[in-house]
Amino acid sequence: MIHSKYFPVIITGFAAGVLTTVPGLKSFGCCLLVPAAAIFALHIDKRIEGYLTKITPSHAIVFGLLTGVAAALFSTTFEVLITFITKRNDIVDALPIIAQQMSEFKFLDPDGLALDMLNSIANDIIEYGFSPLYAFILFFNNLFSFAIFGLIGGLAGMGILNSKIKKLNR
Predict the structure, then answer these.
(1) Pairwise CA distance, residues 50 & 147, whole Å
(2) How close are the terminal C-alpha atoms of the chain, in Å?
(3) Do 31 and 149 form a contact (C-beta atoms < 8 A)?
(4) 96, 78 contact by CB (below 8 A)
């Protein structure tokens, strides 16, 4: 059996990644699901090793960041896979509305480069089911936001679990 102290991070990152692809939960992915996953990863880690020692800030930061990174990897993978299978996603569905809004507010995109880029992404997705630019942008967006909120969740989990550890060790 392989022993790894980062299994809780992988497991909770996978769960958060799966849940962030669910349409109703997608909006809450970065601000609720990823911090909750980081807190739960710390909780699982403490359950495995026993509630003997307090969680250090560096341990909480590492677990939070790694949970965010794992969630970003899994979320991006599932989102790209779903897009590949269905050949549709939010960009394809919202493109007519975005084009209308950008034509009304010319100062947002005076040269039309952003709209051209969105059209290119949408055409690649409709035709091939995959857009490398979409996958790249999605991954780095998820990586940045999930890492930050995972860090916040790790530090919040440290506070929550350290108070529990303090009560247990009295």
Answers:
(1) 27
(2) 35
(3) yes
(4) no
Residue type (1 letter), 25 = L
* Per-residue model confidence (pLDDT) at position 1: 41
Q: Find where tokens 């992988």 sit.
A: 10
pTM: 0.89
Mean pLDDT by 10 residues, the chain (170 residues): 77 95 84 95 91 90 96 96 92 89 77 85 93 95 96 95 84
79 contacts 18 by C-beta, under 8 angstroms: no
DSSP 111-165: TSHHHHHHHHHHHHHHHHS--HHHHHHHHHHHHHHHHHHHHHHHHHHHHHHHHHH
Cα 143 to Cα 69, 73, 137: the distances in Å are 6, 8, 10
